[in-house]
Design brief:
The complex is a heterodimer. By secondary structure, chain A is of the alpha+beta class. Helices cover 41% and strands 19% of the residues of chain A. Chain B is 26% helix and 29% strand. Chain B starts with a strand and ends with a strand. The chains are: A alpha+beta, B alpha+beta. Chains A and B meet through helix 5, strand 1, strand 4, strand 5 and helix 8 of A and helix 7, helix 10, helix 12, helix 13 and strand 26 of B.
């Protein structure tokens, strides 16, 4: 082999010892293997000075050297890269016990969450969502709901009046009338919204949220109300939840019932949440009073219906274990941060 | 309503435990809110007979040997001044519970358990008790108010439990009565229901009495306002001897929370509780003109009520007057001038039905409530009105405190107190329930309710007693049937006869939810504030007198002035919420609310106001700026696939140079800006706050706009960074506008740096933009973008004097 070639090979072997980084390997490779300026590349240019009879051997020698150098430096490069990668990983060793970086995401209000959950359940049963006005007339809030001026039920609710005719609605039932005036059965609506009563303590807020449901169709009975409520409580409180109807009174339903569900905390055995009774009062309901249907021009010989009203705050408070209704309206970031469904 | 078990037992045989009765009442629609034994805190107290009683030297104490019958004989030390050998007193045994009293021996301070003890070195195994320590007063047992031992009669068996003797073994039911059943606002009314649910006869209270020949000639009752007083009856009683009522009556009144006064007054109170009919007794000697006249008060007319307050009335209030003067505020309170005194010898009883609404309003207007007004406000039926008078006269005789004359006056509007007939279809009753209740059960239930049912094929005919004013049709009958038959008979069904309907939210509801979720993704929490706010909030916002926001709807009867106006802006509630947060040390955060503001067309309201769905958002904290909030505004625009533009504006409550109006497609939809410093200071804000309001009612016209797909450019886009120097007051918006005008290929301009400093001169700033050029018809040639830049720079220079930064 040409001594020159041999010298280059030795130069490569010797030079490799000193290489400390992939970048140096790259430069080293360029120094020998760059097509134009590399030492091995230059050997090829020497070809014209080589005597003809030696050309073949010389060419073979250069090619062999080149092959060898490619392999040798390539290996070197691989090793160096591997070493560097390990070093880089090591340099980036972290303390995984340091606190997480928080991703700032806000929460929907618990009332919105509960409202959405209930809407989802009833939308699946074919209920449309209707939102009536918060400012109502006496007629829609009371009179049309079988609660005329002198009716004792008006005492059940302390009403905020805005004028002799207008008031802040005390119940989302007011929306029922608007819907029934415009639409003939079949009617299936869910009417969520803010309602107002002159009440202010730890469990009462002058503004709170109700969700009114109404079904009017042929042959609707108390059994349908019970069946639908059973379905509802199973979906919102879990499969094993049962309902219990007990007599009550609302002017716009007859018969009227309070609906209790088996305590989802203790399963009905009795605990602090259900005050030892095994049951939790969740909503009021009943068969729509004929007078209400008649007020809206619906033929009671053909149609009947049921209605129910759910208190959203109460549901939210039960769900999230909130003991003071005021917390829901104070917008304390520390409170809102905790109340989410994530 | 409070109902003692012993009293209920007067009218119906109750042979079940109080707890079982509670369940029965609950199942038929009467929730027992509380059930407790009268002497629930008292136990192991027996009749003790003091055999020996020796003073302990140098003390006020005595050491007694007390025979407690079967329980044994104990040594008990006692400090009462009336302890003596031979006396019988309540003896609390070791382990007994009684009330602990303060040093005055009168104020109850909780319950204590008696243990073995030593007083002044002498062992004591129990305690002799006073009335207070056992929770009884003079009305429950004579002598119970004495500040010493409660003295028990000599003939009482030693060792017997004292609770039955003192009436402490009774049970109190606190029952919630629904508004449709005013007839159950009385002990007898509840007993009637218990009789029905137990299937036992109801034993009506005795109503018999004997009238003598005494009368008052020419006595006359007139009712000038029959719309407010459908029935008024009066009866004269003479030779009255005012005295204490018997123990049984005093005890019963005590158990329902009424103190005894005197026999005649107690009778009226007793009947109020027993029959639910308020009664009034006038001292007849104070009445002038042998006349009772029921009329509306004159405007400004005055009366002094028996609690000695003078009230000024209006024509909305009703008065009971004699021939000359008002003697009672109808249904609310008697007049001081005609009250029953110890010397009273002639009494005129009143039993009347007054319109419930009138009494309720009067009671509220004059700020006076009484047991009577509270009862009238729930509605009184004429059946009870008639019955009550008879009962009062019966009790006058039973108590022997007067003689019943034959002078009776009754004015009525012709309403019958007899039962009325109601016929309904049994099929319809069952159709309400969705089950078929067997006819024999229907008959049994209706019979128990005293409805005297008759069935002829599908027709059920009932005789409805006058006190059941709520019974009008088949739905009412269905309710009566099912509450007595039991709701557990209802079989769940899932609307088998109903038609299928399509449910779900509409576009607006869906879009608002999307908007809320997008706002949450920016780190903002949703909050909900009251729909009402305070007039001072309008001042806080420094709104001028003629501002639209001041034209707010007022609540006539607000809880407080702070909650008296319907919101015309959501900003004030939001500023207050941020202030509350900062006061609690929450120094950064993002909040938003979507709620209605209420814009009246006219005040006072004559038509529905405009309820405008509005978004209010706020950010606060050292890291927040006008631009972080603007980012949230942009998020709103992105969600709706619209674009917002911003223009300088001012608001009375915002920073004059950091406030912008927000417009969508040229329509103004809201504003955003930094809270003014004086307001921030007033609200004790420690870090800056930025607020935005957007009218969603306006924005909703773009709800449902879809994102449109633009095909990706066919040819390569090119990007250039341009740094230009302009006068400080030139805005980014102006520069962008000029650029866009200068070249139609610009598809995006993004500011990435602003520099101000000595290098470029004090009145200048340097702004650096990344400008994106997108080819349209064909690819850009090698020099075309450079040509665009050149043109842009030329235009910038011409329009706003901008120079390329060297």
């Amino acid at each position: 082999m040409n001594a020159n070639l041999e010298a280059i090979k030795e130069e490569i072997i010797a030079g490799a010892e000193a290489l400390a980084s992939a970048k140096e390997v790259y430069e080293f490779r360029k120094k020998f293997l760059d097509g134009k300026t590399g030492k091995i590349g230059l050997l090829m240019k020497e070809m014209k000075n080589i005597p003809n009879e030696e050309k073949a051997a010389y060419g073979k020698g250069v090619n062999e050297l080149k092959e060898w150098a490619l392999g040798f430096i390539g290996e070197l490069d691989e090793k160096m890269k591997e070493k560097e990668l390990l070093a880089r990983y090591e340099a980036e060793k972290i303390d995984i016990s340091l606190p997480a970086v928080e991703t700032a995401e806000g929460n929907l209000h618990p009332i919105t969450l509960v409202r959405n959950e209930i809407i989802d359940i009833f939308a699946g049963m074919g209920f449309e969502i209707y939102e009536g006005p918060e400012i109502e007339t006496d007629y829609y809030n009371f009179t049309a709901l079988n609660t005329p001026q002198d009716h004792p039920a008006r005492d059940m609710q302390d009403t905020f009046y805005l004028s002799s005719e207008f008031l802040l609605r005390t119940q989302t039932s007011a929306g029922q009338i608007h819907v029934m005036e415009k639409k003939q059965p079949p009617i299936k609506i869910l009417s969520p919204g803010k309602v107002f009563r002159s009440d202010d303590d730890a469990t009462h807020s002058p503004m709170f949220t109700q969700m009114e449901g109404l079904v009017v169709d042929k042959g609707i009975t108390l059994c349908d109300l019970q069946g639908m409520l059973d379905e509802f409580v199973k979906k919102i409180y879990g499969e094993g939840t049962k309902t219990r109807l007990r007599p009550s009174y609302f002017p716009f339903t007859e018969p009227s019932v309070e609906v209790d569900c088996s305590c989802f905390e203790c399963g009905g055995k009795g605990c602090k949440l259900c005050k030892g009774t095994g049951w939790i009062e969740i909503l009021g309901a009943g068969v729509v009073n004929n007078k209400v249907l008649e007020n809206c021009g619906i033929d009671t010989n053909e149609y009947s219906g049921f209605a129910f009203g759910i208190g959203i705050e109460r549901t939210a408070m039960l769900k999230y274990g909130i003991n003071n209704i005021k917390l829901l309206f104070e917008s304390d970031i520390k409170v809102l941060n905790q109340l989410n469904d994530k | 309503m409070l109902a003692p078990l012993s009293w209920l037992k007067d009218y119906v045989d109750i042979d079940i435990t109080p707890q079982e009765l509670e369940d029965k009442l609950f199942s038929c629609g009467f929730e027992v809110e509380e059930l407790y034994e009268v002497g629930k805190d008292i136990s192991k107290v027996v009749v003790g007979h003091v055999l020996e009683c020796e003073p302990i030297p140098d003390t006020h104490l005595h050491v007694c040997q007390v025979d407690c019958g079967e329980h044994g004989t104990f040594q008990i030390c006692c400090g009462a001044d009336n302890v003596h050998a031979g006396g019988k007193f309540p003896a609390a045994l070791v382990g007994a519970t009684v009330y602990a009293t303060a040093k005055d021996h009168k104020t109850v301070e909780g319950v204590m358990t008696i243990g073995k003890g030593k007083l002044r070195g002498v062992e004591s195994h129990g305690m002799l008790c006073s009335g207070v320590e056992l929770g009884v007063n003079e009305n429950m047992y004579p002598g119970a108010d004495y500040n010493g031992l409660l003295v028990l009669p000599e003939d009482i068996p030693v060792g017997a439990d004292v609770k039955p003797i003192l009436g402490l073994d009774d049970w109190i039911f606190d029952i919630a009565i629904t508004a449709n059943r005013p007839d159950c606002q009385s002990i007898a009314g509840i007993a009637r229901e218990i009789a029905a649910v137990l299937g036992k006869p109801f034993k009506a209270p005795a109503l018999d009495y004997t009238e003598d020949e005494v009368t008052i000639e020419n006595f006359k009752v007139s009712v000038d306002c029959p719309e407010l007083c459908p029935r008024y009856s009066a009866h004269y009683v003479h030779d009255v001897k005012i005295a204490e009522s018997p123990l049984w009556m005093k005890r019963r009144l005590q158990l329902v929370g009424i103190g005894a006064i005197s026999n005649v007054v107690d009778i009226t109170n007793y009947i109020l509780k027993e029959l639910g009919q308020p009664m009034h007794a006038f001292d007849y000697s104070t009445l002038e003109g042998d006349t009772i006249c029921v009329r509306r008060a004159a405007e400004g007319e005055k009366i002094v009520t028996l609690d000695e307050t003078e009230l000024t009335l209006t024509t909305e209030n009703m008065l009971i007057c004699d021939g000359v003067k008002p003697v009672a505020l109808a249904g609310v309170m008697g007049g001081l001038n005609s009250e029953i005194k110890d010397t009273t010898t002639d009494v005129l009883f009143e039993s009347a039905k007054f319109a419930r609404d009138n009494i309720r309003r009067t009671s509220r207007a004059v700020g006076k409530t009484s047991d009577s007004s509270a009862r009238y406000a729930k509605g009184v039926d004429e059946y009870a009105t008639v019955m009550a008078m008879k009962r009062a006269l019966h009790l006058i005789e039973e108590l022997g405190c007067g003689k019943v004359s034959r002078m009776h006056a009754d004015v009525n509007t012709g309403n019958s107190v007899n039962p009325h007939e109601l016929s309904v279809s049994i099929n319809k009753v069952n159709a309400v329930l969705g089950i078929t209740v067997p006819n024999e059960d229907i008959v049994r239930i209706m019979t128990n309710l005293c409805f005297e049912p008759k069935i002829d094929k599908d027709t059920l005919t009932l005789q409805i007693p006058a006190y059941r004013e709520d019974m009008e049709g088949y739905q009412d009958v269905a309710e009566e049937v099912i509450r007595m038959y039991g709701y557990d008979h209802i079989v769940p069904a899932f609307m088998p006869t109903a038609q299928v309907t399509v449910g779900g939210e509409n576009l607006q509801q869906k879009t608002e939810l999307r908007l809320k979720k997008a706002l949450c993704s920016t780190g903002a929490h949703e909050c909900i504030h009251y729909s009402f706010f305070s007039p001072s909030d309008l001042d806080l916002l420094k709104l001028p007198a003629d501002a639209m926001e001041r034209h707010a709807i007022r609540i006539m009867n607000p809880i407080s002035e702070e909650l008296s106006l319907m919101r015309t802006t959501l900003a004030a509630s939001m500023i207050n919420a941020v202030s509350r947060n900062q006061k609690k040390g929450n120094l950064e955060g993002r909040l938003f609310e979507i709620a209605k503001k209420f814009i009246p067309k006219e005040l006072p309201l004559t038509e529905y106001p405009d309820e405008r769905q509005t978004l209010c958002a706020a950010v606060f904290g050292e890291k927040e700026s006008f631009y972080t909030l603007k980012g949230i505004a942009q998020k709103v625009a992105d969600v709706l696939h619209v674009s917002f533009s911003y223009a300088n504006t001012t608001k009375t409550f915002l920073h004059p140079y950091q406030t912008a109006s927000i417009s969508c497609e040229g329509v103004e939809v809201g504003y955003l800006g930094k809270l003014a410093y004086d307001i921030a200071e007033e609200c004790d804000l420690r870090v800056p706050m930025y607020i935005m309001e957007i009218d969603l009612e306006v924005l909703s016209q773009w709800y449902g706009k879809k994102a449109v797909f633009t095909p990706l450019p066919k040819y390569a886009q090119e990007q250039r960074d341009l740094a230009i120097v302009v006068d400080k007051n030139v805005t980014c918006g102006e520069i962008e506008a000029v650029m866009k005008n200068a070249c139609k290929y610009i598809t995006s301009i993004k500011l990435f740096d602003i520099y101000e400093g000595a290098q470029i001169g004090g009145d200048k700033k340097s702004m650096a933009f990344t400008v994106l050029f997108t080819p349209k018809e064909e690819a850009f040639g090698p020099e075309s973008v450079d040509a665009f830049v050149k043109k842009i720079l030329k235009q910038l220079n011409k329009a706003i004097g901008a120079e390329l930064r060297s």
